[in-house]
Amino acid sequence: MGVPQRSHQEPEALLRALYDAAVQRALPAHTLAAFLPAPPKGRTLVLGAGKAGGAMAQAVDRLWPMDKPLSGLVVTRYDHIPPGAELLPGRIEVVEAAHPVPDAAGVQAAERMLELTQGLTEDDLVLCLISGGGSALLTLPALGLTLADKQAINRGLLACGANIHEMNCVRKHLSRIKGGRLAAACAPARVVTLTISDVPGDDPSVIASGPTVPDGTTCADALAILDRYGIAIPEGVRTPLMAGQLETPKPSDPLWSRCSVQMIATPQQSLQAAAELAEQAGLNAYILSDEMEGESRDVGRVHAALARAAAKGHGPFIKPCVLLSGGETTVRVLAPKPGAARGRGGRAGEFCMGLALGLQAQEGVWGLAADTDGIDGVEANAGARVAPDTLSRAQARSLVLTDHLDRNDAVGFFEPLGDLVVTGPTFTNVNDFRAVLIL
Q1: Is residue 294 scored above 60 in pLDDT?
Q2: Domain map of the chain by residue range?
C-alpha cells in the first residue's frame, strides 16, 4: 500500500497528535465523573497523592453536590496544579511537594492527612485520589528512619535500575502511611479509592505504593531488594525489617471489607486512543504492550529491530503503520568517565537514544517517546523524537550518540538537534508512551 511523499514535519506532527490523544484519554476531567460514589450519610473526606492529584481534586470539587459536606487534602508535584482553581468551590486543599526524591513538604502533607482521619465514623466516606508519583509525594518515614535516610534510599533505588514493583515494595515497608496504612487509619469509615494507573499490570497495590489497598509483599522481600542492589539502610531499620516489625496490612485483614478501588484511567486505554487516531489517519496501528519493562535503551533497540523489519516488508507489521507501547522502563545510571560531566535525561530520552542507535538512519521510520505526565525523569522535557536524519544531523554538530548513551545524556544529545518533546505538566500520568511510525 503506497502513501504520498511526506515531509519530516508531517510524521512528527502525527506522532505528537498520537501522544496528545493518549494524554487526553487519561485526564481526570474526562474520566472521573463516571466513578464518583454517592454522597454518604455522614461527611466526605478527600485525601490523595500523585502527579494527577490536582486535576483529580478539581474534578471532584466541580462535580460534588454543593449541598453535601466535602473537605480534604491532596498533595501533588510542584507546578502540577492545573489552572482554573479560582473558578471552583475550593473545598479540597491541594498542596505541592517534591518528586521523585521526597522533601519535607511531602512529610508535612502525610502527617496532616493522618490527622484528618481522626474521628471518622461508619457514616463517613473517605474518597482517596491516587495516581503515579504518590510514592514520593506521600512521605512519612518509618520510625527510626529520617527524611535524609529516605531521600538517600530513594536516590539509590532510582539509580540502580530497580523496577517499579521493587522500588514500591521497599517504600511500603519504610513508611507509616503507604502499603495500606492510610486505609487502616481511616477505619471505620468507608474508603473508596479512585486511581489512575502508571504501572505495568495496573496493580493498585503498586500505584503510589498502595496507601489504601492490601499489600502482599513482606519485610523480607523489601530487605532482599535493598541487599540485592547494595542500598544501605540504618541498622535501626534493618533490625525491625529482619524481625518483621514493619509489616503492612495484608489481604486477610477484615478492614478491607469497607474498602473498594476503581481504576479511572489506564495505559492500555491511552494506547487504544492513540491507535484509533492512527487508524483514522490511514495507518495500521499495532499495540505491542502496555506492560513493557527493562532497560530503556535496550527496549529502544528492540523497537528499532521491529521497525527495520517492517520498513523492509518483513514480519507481521504491514506498513504504513505505527507501533505503540507503554509500561515503565528503567535507566541504570552509569558512573561518568573521569573528567566527564554526568548527563541529563530520563527513560523516554534514553529509549530514543537506543532507538536511534538501532535504526541506523533507516529510511521511512520516525519515533517519539514521552512520559504522559510531561516530565521525563526530572527534566523539563517530556521526551524526544527520532527521524531518519537524526544521526546525520548529530554528526554535523559533532554529537556522538554512543558517548551520550555512556553518560545517560539524552538532553545533551537531542536538545541541540531541536528534538526534545516539551509539553509542560499534563496533570495526569499513565507512564511511558512510545510510538514508532513506519511509512
Answers
A1: yes
A2: 9-24+268-438, 29-140+175-214+249-265
Residue 4 has pLDDT above 70, yes or no: no
Domain covering 29-140+175-214+249-265 in this structure, CATH number: 3.40.50.10180
> Where do we find the cell 486543599?
93
Determine the pLDDT at residue 7: 42
CATH superfamily of domain region 9-24+268-438: MOFRL domain (3.40.1480.10)
Whether the model pTM is above 0.90: yes
- Does residue 8 carry a pLDDT above 60? no
